[in-house]
Design brief:
Elements: H1 15-34, E1 38-39, E2 45-47, H2 48-52, H3 57-60, E3 65-67, E4 73-76, H4 81-89, E5 99-108, E6 120-129, H5 134-150, E7 157-162, H6 163-172, H7 177-188, H8 192-201, H9 206-216, E8 219-220, H10 223-233, H11 238-256, E9 262-266, E10 279-284, E11 293-297, H12 301-304, E12 312-318, H13 319-328, E13 340-345, H14 351-363, E14 367-370, H15 377-386, E15 391-395, H16 397-401, E16 404-409, E17 414-419, H17 420-428
Parallel strand pairs: 1-5, 7-9, 13-14, 13-15
Antiparallel strand pairs: 2-4, 3-4, 5-6, 6-12, 7-10, 8-9, 10-11, 11-12, 15-16, 16-17
The structure holds adenosine monophosphate (AMP).
Adenosine monophosphate (AMP) binds at residues 79, 109, 111, 116-118, 121, 123, 272, 291-294, 316, 318, 320-321.
Length: 429
């Protein structure tokens, strides 16, 4: 037999990493609850057409796509948003707005595996559907900030832009959507010179080239100053000016809310996914050169899937990358240090009693294992030490007949005899 390995880009998560992934997932779930987001679950396998419709070339070309046995062209979801938009356009179409939806699960992209980039990865996803107002964009930024804070991350920076600014310029220049997307895609890959060449080839004016060049170089952490510069830069392009105003209002709300985040406004920032129509953002930490999170406004997507025109804004947080960042920043997980107990029967005649005692402790909410290897006492205790357990409950015939057991504190190396009815309390204190 060959030695089997995981498929390239796929990973096993051993207990420690699984604990961390679930910790982040649970923090995301509690943040979702605190903002009124309701969790939904959608399939991992969706129709290829749904997923390919608006994914942007980057993601579309990297989908795990195949024909199922019924001959349907399907794919593993590379992101949550199309599934959510599908649900909103169909099953939830008559629900009053806003809808606040939360999902967490695995996604699949045929990316080139490297640190922080896998072919199977996890996201926690928040979507706020039905509002086109800046309050909604601000909320999604604040949800993200709250999550970063709750998992214990530090020094995170929000990179924020607005696709409406550059798109506004290009629309006024008469570029069609395909040409706009091509330019934005090059910018997303930071191929700025190529994007300007593409602009020129599409027939854009000299003024448009100057403005685009200006936007590409324009960034800063002083929000009002950078936004004012953006406004001056796009002067004369009406839609672009409106987009800058929108961005200004969103960021003002975030700052006024008292949410303390570091923001870098980047006028030339584009994101790979084609469906964004407004504010876009990513979150970075200094220890990683890949984004932890990506989000933004997508006002056309629900309509594209046959729903009513429905504005929406959302964010997808990369759970794997948050874990990497937490490891880099040596974040300790809070509230997860539980005492661990092993129940060991001193001989074969007390096996059932040992089982009964382990149930008793589980009923009291204590984490209990049972010795199942038939080890002699010395070996069993040695093994408990090796695995860093806290207590051993030793069930012997003589003590049990007197209603007692022996409790061994493995860390302090102390041993006492405890009455069975007092055992739960003793371990809990
Ligand atoms: P996107 O949908 O591309 O905006 O991605 C949103 C977030 O998902 C990113 O910021 C990452 O944290 C995470 N992510 C995207 N692609 C991958 C990948 N191949 N491996 C790990 N995490 C990813």
């Amino acid at each position: 037999m060959p030695e089997f390995k995981t498929v390239r880009g796929m990973r096993d998560f051993l207990p420690e990493e699984t604990r961390m992934m679930k910790y982040i997932e649970n923090k995301a779930r509690s943040v979702a609850e605190s903002f009124g987001y309701q969790e939904i679950m959608t399939p991992i396998v969706e129709s290829y057409e749904l997923l390919a419709t608006k994914a942007g070339e980057e993601v579309r070309l990297r989908m795990f796509a195949f024909k199922d046995l019924g001959g349907r062209m399907v794919a593993l979801r590379p992101e949550f948003t199309p599934s959510i938009a599908r649900v909103v356009a169909t099953t939830l179409k008559n629900e009053p707005k806003p809808l606040r939806l939360f999902s967490v699960g695995s996604l699949y992209r045929y990316d080139e595996p490297q640190r922080g980039r896998y072919r199977e990865f996890w996201q926690s996803d928040f979507e706020l559907v039905g509002s086109s107002r800046p309050e909604a964009d601000a909320e999604v930024l604040m949800v993200t900030a709250r999550l970063m804070e709750r998992v214990g991350l530090k020094d995170y920076i929000f990179k924020v832009g607005h696709v409406g600014v550059l798109r506004g310029v290009l629309i006024d220049e008469g570029l069609n959507e395909k040409a706009q997307n091509a330019v934005l895609q090059l910018m997303d890959k930071k191929q700025y010179e190529d994007s300007l060449v593409r602009l020129k080839d599409s027939g854009a004016s000299e003024k448009c080239l100057t403005v685009s060049r200006g936007l590409i170089g324009l960034r800063g952490s002083n929000i009002s100053e950078t936004v004012e510069k953006m406004k001056t830069c796009v002067d004369g392009y009406e839609k672009a000016v409106a987009a800058v105003e929108d961005l200004k209002e969103i960021l003002k709300l975030v700052v006024d809310s008292g949410c303390k985040i570091t923001v870098n406004v980047e006028a030339g920032f584009a994101r790979g996914l084609e469906y964004y129509t407004g504010m876009i953002f990513e979150v970075y930490v200094p220890q990683l050169d890949v984004a932890l999170t990506g989000g933004g406004r997508y006002d056309k997507l629900v309509e594209l899937f046959g729903g009513q025109p429905t504005p929406a804004v959302g964010v997808a947080n990369g759970v794997d990358r948050m874990m990497l960042a937490m490891q880099e920043q040596k974040v300790t997980l809070k509230g997860t240090a539980e005492k661990k107990v092993i129940v060991i029967s001193a001989g074969d005649e007390t096996k059932s009693e040992a089982l009964r005692i382990s149930h008793l402790l589980k009923d009291a909410g204590i984490t209990v294992e049972l010795e199942v290897m038939g080890r002699k006492m010395g070996k069993a205790l040695e093994d408990a030490d090796r695995r860093k357990l806290d207590y051993a409950v030793i069930v012997g015939k003589k003590e049990f007949d007197e209603g007692k057991i022996v409790l061994k504190d493995l860390k302090r190396r102390k041993q006492t005899t405890v009455r069975i009815e007092e055992l739960q309390e003793t371990l809990k204190s």
